[in-house]
Amino acid sequence: SSVLTQPPSVSVAPGETARITCGGNIVAAKSVHWYQQKAGQAPVLVMFYDDDRPSGIPERFSGSSSGNTATLIITRVEAGDEADYYCQVWDGRSDPSYVFGTGTKVTVL
Amino acid sequence: QLHLQESGPGLLKSSETLSLTCTVSGDSIRSSTYFWGWVRQFPGGGLEWIGSIYYSGSTYYNPSLKSRVTMSVDTSKNRLSLRVNSVTAADTAVYYCTTHPTISAPCFSWGQGTRVTVSS
After folding, report:
1. In B8-47, which positions are buried (b, 16+ CB within 10 angstroms) versus exposed (e)?
2. How far does the CA of residue A49 sit from the closest CA of chain B (Å)?
3. Are the beta carbons of B47 and A43 closer than 8 angstroms?
4. Phi and psi at residue A22, in whole multiples of 5°?
5. Nearest CA in chain A to B110
6. B54 in A contact zone (CB under 8 Å)
7. Measured between beta carbons, which residues in chain B are less than 8 angstroms from residue A33?
8. What is the pLDDT of residues B19-47, one digit of tens each?
């Protein structure tokens, strides 16, 4: 089955830019979705199909994908952006399945 | 607005069968707009898709869980159900009910989750 690798942690100062990567062979062929999960809460979709933003998500959130790596970018980081972030891909090959990334803890310094 | 509410036993023993329900409000479970899914989150934080079901009854299961999982919809009660057979401590997790518009689309809505602990 596919594997999506994320850095365990990213630290960023308020007002700076955070970049969270999601790597795997499947990324080159499939769109990536991103979720934000704050402590004690359910995940929330913040980016879908690589670079589409759901309504209600600030424009500070953007996404991109190139080759085997997708990236979630958060500009002008705020304290409220501190959370765990997970990428997700639908692997529709031999045994269809959603695959989640390993998760990244974003810490706002 | 769509609202999903999971419920379950909280604690069960190894080898037992886990049964969870997700009550849907704000729309009909027979709506062709949604697939209804289950995702679980382990104590270490990792997320795992369990499976999804369409209102017609078509199911899609995680290959790694397919032999132990059954999903169904109860249109009379507007809820969906998840059964996991022969649980072990490895099934200890928070279980979330989710929705997605197509089988490859992201999960736009999530319930608050229900915690399940399997004791030996």
Report:
1. beeebeeeeebebbbbbeeeebeeeebbbbbbbbeeeeeb
2. 8
3. yes
4. -140, 110
5. A42
6. no
7. 106-107
8. 999 999 999 998 878 899 999 999 989 99
